[in-house]
Every structure is written in C-alpha cells, then in structure tokens.
Design goal:
The structure is a single chain. The protein is an alpha/beta fold. The protein has two domains: 238 residues, Rossmann fold (3-Layer(aba) Sandwich); 96 residues, formyl-coa transferase, domain 3 (2-Layer Sandwich), CATH 3.30.1540.10. The strands form three sheets. It has a six-stranded parallel sheet, with helices on both faces. It has a three-stranded antiparallel sheet with strand order 7-8-9, with helices on one face.
C-alpha cells in the first residue's frame, strides 16, 4: 500500500519507531537516521540477543534500514539534506527547538521540499505553556526544560486522575495511544491528501502525546467540562472500576482474576444468576460510593470461593460479559484466539556464540494490528545493524 513511500526516521525509543513500524508493515521503506556509536537507545535495552541488540529493538524496527549521520557535523548535515530530496516523510521526536537549532526548521524544510510530510512527536506539542524550546538564552544559559516523560504526560492530560489508585498503567499508553497511533494516522492521511492534490503539497504534523491522552477521555472530560460542580475524583468514574459490575476480582487460586464488564443490564442479570445472587440485580449495576462499595465487598468474597477455571466453566453456560484475566505468559503460550490471528512475528537472528561460532536463533515479537485483504506487508526481517545500509543508501545520493 505504501510501497513507493520513503520515510526518514530521526526518532528513537518507542513512540516514533512504533509509528514507522506501522508504516513499514504497510510497505513503506523506513530509513532510521541514527547517531554514530550508539544509535537508537532501544538497542541497549534489557534482554540481549545473540546479534548484540535486544528483542525490544527488533519488535519495533523490523524490516527497516539504518544509516548513521551526525546532524551536528556539517558534512553529515549536508548528506542528510540530500537524503531529504528523496523522502516522502520525515519524522522526528526531539524536544521542541532541537530541529531549529540543527538548522532543520520544519517550516523552512517545507519551503525547500514542498511535497515533504514532516511529523513531529513530543510530550506537549510545539505550542503552549509547557512547550519550552530547547535553545540557548543570551549569556549562555540554557532555558529551563520541562520533563516530557510518560508519567508527567499522564498527570497533565488528566488520565492519572481517572485511576482508582493514582499509579502508572503497565503499558506505555502515552507513547502508543497518545503518540504513535495519532502520528501514523495523520501521516497516512497526509499521504492520501497529497496524492489527491495536483500540487502534491506536503504538510507539518504536530503530535502532542498529552493531546492524544486527553482525547482518550471523551466521556469523563465531557462530564467535567459541562457539569462544573461534578467532581470525578480518584476511582469515581464508571469505566475505571468505581461500579461493581465493571471491576476485576481475585479468584481462589494464586494470581488469578476474573473481569466483569457488565454495563448492560442483561449481562449484569446473567452474572447475578451465575453466582446465584439474584438480590444483587437491583443493586450493583450502576451503584457507586457507599452502595457500590458494599456490593463490591460481597462480590470480592464470592469470587474468592472458586478457582478461575471453576468460574470459567460456570460462566460458559451464561451470556455474561465476564472473562478470566490472562497473564502475559499465558496469552503468548496458550490463548487459541491469539494463535489463530497470528499475532506474533517470527524473526531469524544471526550472531556469534561465546566460542565465536556463527549461530542462528528464532525470536518471536508481537506484530502490528494491521489486517486488510490487500496492502499489508508485515516485515519479517530483524531490525537493522547500526549503519548497516550506509553504503546502499548514501552511494546513490
């Protein structure tokens, strides 16, 4: 689908590389522009592989190419500008101001390369109170920098305040849902628009991960925005566990849980029948505060009386929105649905053993959730070695 599209990727770690992995799995040629010596920091993450990189790196860099350039070096900077002439998309995730300091101001780049689509991913975006550009003030002092970590993004977007206990989720929601998916969606939209435009105009995309996280809250934020006296405090929102019918409960066996998602009356009634508690039908559906707490307490005791497998067998006879919680290792190893959907990509790595012998090993990483009859090209090649494609790419400039 994107087989004739070339993407230059200046990003590292998670949001940007995941964005370009989506584009690569749609057929785009993705060239990672990496700093000589270290490259993408994700290469240094835990879980070392025999090729000297990591499973984390391979999981979001499959099928990409790697070119090493130091953009602070005049010769490399000139080479990068030549490379831009061949590109359809440029994606970067520096702090605001870094591109300008590198004399790669996106507005000027768009004038020079009018068909180029430039995507900028940052914690707070390129404008606003928390967007402090990284540059030198008069006198040589650095301007104050505001932390753009996932935790800070969660706090400022309001997502953290929705949780029953204010803590970070086990997944990088800000990076992926707040950054990568909005970035990929807008890049593909711009490519489509450019194809329809006789002038083939490019565009500049400003992706704020805080904006993306804020947009994940249409229900609670619309309540707060339009009901001034309404306060959604920690745990007091329907979809974060504040109502008994939409909660996770512990089972009798160790590290086993059951999840209820019974917001519709028919599912809640079926659940009450399954656990033989018809008296709860009129109490627990949308009960909050003290009423909800008493129902939760009763359900907590009930679900601890049986193992997760026993509950699975009981609920198999009812049309209830209830499921046993799978642990991560159980999902990969046992879940027949995930196996049927081929959610893992097998990769073959080549490296050296401790005694210097060339060896191969198999690596399994999650694939991107792209499922179309035509146009998907899931990459099965491992991530590139640092600078692996210098000769191939740069010799053609």
């Amino acid at each position: 689908m994107l087989s004739n599209i070339r993407v230059l990727d200046l990003t590292r770690l998670l949001p940007g590389p995941f964005t370009t992995q989506l584009l690569a799995d749609l057929g785009a040629e993705v060239i990672k522009i990496e700093e000589p010596g270290f490259g993408d920091y994700c290469r240094l993450a835990p879980t070392q592989c025999i090729d000297g990189t990591t499973s984390s790196f391979h999981s979001i860099n499959r099928g990409k190419k790697s070119v090493t350039l130091d953009l602070k070096n005049k010769k490399d900077w000139t080479t990068f500008k030549k490379l831009l002439k061949t590109a359809d998309v440029l994606i970067e995730s520096f702090r605001p101001g870094v591109m300008e300091n590198l004399k790669l101001n996106p507005e000027q780049l768009l004038q020079e390369f009018p068909s180029l689509i430039i995507c900028r991913i940052s914690g707070y975006g390129q404008t606003g109170h928390y967007c402090i550009h990284t540059n030198i003030e008069k006198g040589g002092r650095m301007k104050k920098k505001i932390c753009q970590s996932q935790k800070m993004i969660f706090i400022r977007s309001g997502l953290l305040g929705l949780m029953e206990k204010p803590d970070l989720p086990p997944l990088p929601v800000a990076d992926l849902c707040g950054g990568a998916y909005p970035a990929a969606f807008q890049i593909v939209s711009c490519l489509f628009g450019r194809e329809k435009d006789p002038l083939r105009k490019g565009n500049i995309i400003d992706v704020s991960m805080t904006d993306g996280c804020y947009a994940l809250m249409p229900f609670p934020q619309s309540i707060v925005n339009n009901t001034p006296k309404h306060n959604i405090s920690f745990g007091k929102y329907m979809l974060n566990g504040s109502v008994p019918c939409y909660q996770v409960y512990e089972c009798k066996d160790k590290n086993a849980y059951i999840s209820l998602g019974c917001l519709e009356p028919k599912f809640w009634y079926q659940t009450c029948d399954a656990i033989q508690c018809p008296h709860l039908k009129s109490k627990g559906l949308l009960a909050m505060d003290n009423g909800g707490d008493s129902v939760k307490a009763e359900l907590t005791k009930i679900f601890k009386t049986k193992t997760s497998q026993e509950w699975r067998e009981i609920f198999s006879k009812y049309d209830a929105c209830v499921e046993i919680v799978n642990l991560s290792e159980q999902v990969s190893a046992n879940d027949p649905q995930l196996k049927a959907r081929n959610l893992d990509v097998p990769l073959t790595l080549v490296g050296k053993s401790k005694d210097g012998q060339t060896v191969q090993t198999q690596l399994k990483v999650p694939r991107t959730p792209l499922n179309m009859k035509h146009g998907v090209d899931i990459q099965t090649k491992p991530g590139p070695k640092l600078g692996e494609h210098n000769q191939e790419i740069l010799s053609k400039l």
